[in-house]
Design goal:
2 domains; 36% helix
Length: 132
Amino acid sequence: MKNLGALVLSLALTGCSSSEFSKAMDTPVPFVNKMFQVPYESKDSVFATGGYFEEELEPNRYKVSFEYRSMNRRSEVEHYLRRRAEELCGSSQYEATEFSEERRSGLAMANNVYVSYSHPVLSFEVACKPKT
């Protein structure tokens, strides 16, 4: 009987702690989110796990893209794309198309093991206006 009481008490306490744990897991933790966000950096950087890249379609016209993670806010990624467009066009203004989104998949090596990934990529086309 003593063991049964201990078992019931143990189950009751476990139930309470697991519900408290699940509540804690639903609460966003800002520093953890920041750890998994892709910062403003070139995709070509040595340690890049995402970032911006562009393709020159013709002189002064580019397709600018940013590969990111789900922890990045869309508004933040759009800001990064506009920032890169301003860098490419210098002090001149630019015209841009609507944003389009796709997924990029591939393989990466981590600790001598290949791991597949699929990340969202937001893009738009930019035409730099001539300086006046």
